[in-house]
C-alpha cells in the first residue's frame, strides 16, 4: 500500500470513529500514525525535490512576507495589483496564475512582500494542482492571507484550513509550551505544572511508543490536547497568524457582509470597488506584529527617517546582528531611550527586549 492510501485509510477511520472516552486512546494513536505518514510524505518531497518546482523560489525580501492562499478565481491576483505596484494577470477563468508572483506593499515605512500564488483546491497537500508548491511557499511566510469568495460560503475556508493543517501549518495558534526531550535511558518521565485534563499519561505513552520512543522527558507547562503533544513530538510545525479576507462583497447582501465581518480574524473587502482596503492593510500590520526602532551614533541625533523594522519581542542582540556581523563580539552595552526602559537613557545588555519607537545607541568595547 502506498503512503497516500495509508493516509486516506487513517483519515477514513478517524472520520468513522465517534469521539468519546472509550475511543480516546484509539483516536490518539490514529492521529499519531497520521502525523507520522504525513511527515514521511513531506520528507519524501524534500528529498526528491518535488516540493520546489520552477518559478517558486522567490527570494525573501523586505521586512516580512505574506502568502496569498485561496481557491482559484477568488481575486488574489486582483488584490496584488491593487495594493502593490506589481501587476499580476487577473481573469475570470480558473487557474490564471500558475507561478509565484511577488509584489511589495509599502506601509508605515516598511516593505512587506506579498506573494500571489496559484489557486489551490481540496487535496492540494497531497499533490493536486500546484498545491504542494504553494504550501511549501506558505511555510516560509510570516503570515497567511487566506482569500475567500464572499459569495461561496464557509466551505472554502474549512477545506483550506484542513490542507494547511495537514502539512504542519498552524494558524492563529500559539506554539504549545511542552518540553520534550528524547533520552538514552530512564524510561518515559512525564510531569506537568497544571492538572492535565485534555491528555492523559497513558495516551502520551501510547503516542511515544508509536514513534518508537521509549525514553524521554516530557513537561507540560499548560493543559494541552494530544494533538498538540503530537505536534511537539513530530516537530517542524510552523505557527503563524492568518487573516481571512472575504473578497467580492459587492456581490452579497449587506446582512451577509455584516456576518462575515464579525467572524474571528476576518475582514471583508472588494478589490474591484476598492472597499475596505485600508482597513485590511491596517489589520495586516497589526497581525505582523512589527515595530520600528531607531539607531543613533554617540553624540548625534537619531535618524528618524531610517529606522529598523523588526518583529516585536526583538532584543538588542538581534539589532546588533542587523547592524554588523561583528557587532555582538564587540558589544559593551547599549543606551536605550523609549518606553522599554524605566528611565531614558538606560544602559542595557544584549538580552533587553525593545518596544516600538525605541532609540538605541550601541557602545563597543
Ligand atoms: N465582483 C467582483 N469580482 C472580483 C473582485 N475581485 C476580483 N474579481 C474578479 O474575479 C475574477 C478572478 O480574479 P483573479 O484575481 O484572477 O483571481 P485569482 O484568485 O488570482 O485566480 P487564480 O489565479 O485562477 O487562482 C476576475 O474576473 C476579477 O475581475 C471583486 O471585488 N468583486
Ligand atoms: Mg491569480
UniProtKB/TrEMBL annotation:
Organism: Adineta steineri
Name listed for the protein in its UniProt record: Developmentally-regulated GTP-binding protein 2
Record PROSITE patterns: G_OBG, GTP1_OBG, TGS
Keywords: GTP-binding, Nucleotide-binding
GO molecular function, one term: GTPase activity
Keyword Isomerase: no
Signal peptide: none
Matches recorded under PANTHER family: DEVELOPMENTALLY-REGULATED GTP-BINDING PROTEIN 2
